């Protein structure tokens, strides 16, 4: 009984410590900078909602856009060199 309790405690502690890393999303200041200046190289925009955003000619070199919603966004002329677009939604996006 005691071992079972200890095992459950360890499991729940491990889940609690790793959950924030798994649920990580974009940095709000990075999103604000991108939308205001279109300059956001190296920014963390993971899981950001950028549906329909005008990002034409934006500097997104090396940005993390994994799991971001870029559906119907205008990315024409944007610099996406080295950007992480893993599992990003690009449906209907205007691409460079």
User: Largest sheet at a glance?
Assistant: none
Q: State which percent range the strand residues make up.
A: under 5%
| Second-tier CATH architecture | 3 Solenoid
**Which ranges are low-confidence, i.e. pLDDT below 50, for 5 or more consecutive residues?**
17-22
**The top level CATH class name:** Mainly Beta
Number of strands: 0
The ordered string of helix (H) and strand (E) elements is HH
What count of domains describes the coordinates? 1
- Average pLDDT number: 86
The CATH topology name reads Pectate Lyase C-like
Alpha plus pi helix count: 2
Radius of gyration: 18 Å
Give an account of the 3D structure:
InterPro entries: 5peptide_repeat (IPR001646), Pentapeptide-BTB/POZ_domain (IPR051082). The chain has about 100 residues and is an all-alpha fold. The protein has a single domain, classed as 3 Solenoid (Pectate Lyase C-like). Helix content is about 30%, strand content about 0%. The N and C termini lie far apart (about 60 Å). About 5% of the residues have low confidence.
